[in-house]
Amino acid sequence: MSEKRERQQLYRSEGIKLLYSNALPGIIITFIAATMLTFTFIDNGQRDGKLLWWGTLCTVLVWRLIDTLLWQRCSDKRKHERGFYLRFTVGCLLTAVLWSSYFCLFERHFTVEEFTATVVILSAMVGGAANVLSGNVILASLYTLIVLLPWSIILIESPLDYKRSLGFLGLFFTATMIFSAIRSATYIKQAIALKYKNQRLVDRMEDTIRERTQKIYEISYKDALTGLSNRVAFQTEAEELIYQYKRGEIPGFSLFFIDLDGFKSINDALGHDVGDRVLLAFSNRLAAFQDNGTLLCRWGGDEFIYCTPQVDHGTLRNLAAQMVKSFSQPFYLREQEITLSATIGIAICPEHSTNLTRLIQIADIAMYALKGKQPERVLFYNHQLEENLRSKVLLQEALNNALARHELRLVFQPIVDAETFAIRSFEALLRWKRGTQIIEPSVFIPIAERSGQIVNIGYWVLEEACKTLAHVPNDDTSIAVNVSIVQFQDQQFVAKISRLLETYHINPGRLHIEVTESLFHSGQSDLTEKIIWLQRKGIKISIDDFGTGYSSLSVIQNLNIDFVKIDRSFIQKIEDKGLAIVEAVMNMSHSLNFRIIAEGVESEEQARLLQRCGIHYMQGFLFSQPVEMVDVFRLAGKTIPLPQAS
């Protein structure tokens, strides 16, 4: 709608409002004036005519009064209807005609008193109408002309001088009242226009405030990327569910704590822009599971919370399985196919807790406990999970001070020549004794890697190994040290290795670095460059636990790996399918020029079978348990007294 049309409608609606707002006082004054005029001079003649006139005017006034009351009682929307304007106009003009007719019909019978009273009353009615009817200039002008013009003309034609003078005065008064009505109407119109402008300004301000309020709400309660509820909004909404449960309105609800697996590698490899699109696409898939009573939240990063009124374990497990299936479908982003998975931890109110913060915490604990464990993707919280996590946290804190308290030490397991059983090298193995408690490496090494403490611990192991090498009398004996991928990622790794070799005057060929196959699966080119540097330096490189991870012959070939250690799981099954694996790796070693070490050799039968395969080196309890540092000096270069294979 155009602004001009809006203003016209506003003028009409405001004009109708002004007319009807002043109508009731005008009707009452008209009735009083007409009654006084009629019955004061009723005996001057034309009694029946005056009574008829008065009755007609009262009928019009009653009709106008009813119309006014109807207008006051109707809705604001209907008050602006054109019908009200037409009825008011007709009623007002009929009243003007009746006023004018009184003078025209009865003037020749007027006494001086009645003549004077009539002229005064008519003039007063016109003067009042100029203001009362100022909401409509045409109506105010017509009212003035109808009431004053007829009797002014009659008086001008009178033979009496004073009446002619009054007639001309009436014409002048008519023009003056019309001019006054026009000025009043103009003023009213300007006031309405000003009100219109103010209203538009207020409306714009309200729209602006509404928009900004909405933006503030979205900033405060919506996640900017996904549009899902943020932490603040979710906690507010979920607290209401707690209250509903406590009031007995709902049986409870469940929280799914969802974490994307492998999302960090997407950000690192493809950039945060792609990562953001993945999060948005993931949130859309999550939203597909939204139903009545469910709440969705991006908790932070690649963590999401799904809240459902369901509490049945079977229903929840099926729902979570459907989610996992949906989330594992590829994402297609700008012709890129990206496949992720998600881990879900579930906590239930009231089964696990009725405190929202606690429910979120334990759902997170369940998710964290399952993280990285294939193929399971869904886990309900149980108390043991928290106990395990608490133990890991306590161990992590204790591990911070393990070096300072001299709780860590190295032991060394011999690696023997497969033909002669002479000890050629040792593998340095880390041990932790906390008071009287022996902590297994399989327990504390993953904790150290996750916390980053493995870097400092790893350098301590390397330095202790180099100290030991420096005092081993046999120059042909080497020591192998396991190095974590976390340690490889340290920018100072190469420099520190070089400094250790120089400090302890170690022949680089006597230091063997053992890495797991997962190192090459990380896809980080700088790690490969560090391995190449170590090889150029003369340090030997071994792949540990070969066959259990990312096996890649191209890596062995391109990096010219020195040793491959066959995992103990294959050696334990060597009399079954393990022998075929050993023979296959042995055949590859001839082509790719690497040496093979068999781990976990525990029986003479295993040793004989390995000898027949032509294996190069063996390591296991058959030859020796891990020994202390002092025994390394004694055993270096010695031969294990075992019978040769026949």
UniProtKB/TrEMBL annotation:
Annotated GGDEF domain residues: 251-383
UniProt entry keywords in alphabetical sequence: Membrane, Transmembrane, Transmembrane helix
Regions that span the bilayer: 20-39, 51-72, 84-103, 140-160, 166-188
A Pfam family this chain is assigned to: GGDEF
Residues of the EAL domain: 392-640
Family annotation (CDD domains): EAL (cd01948), GGDEF (cd01949)
InterPro entries documented for this protein: Biofilm_reg_signaling, EAL_dom, EAL_sf, GGDEF_dom, Nucleotide_cyclase, Rev_trsase/Diguanyl_cyclase
NCBIfam families with a match to the protein in the record: GGDEF
Name of the protein described by the UniProt record: EAL domain-containing protein
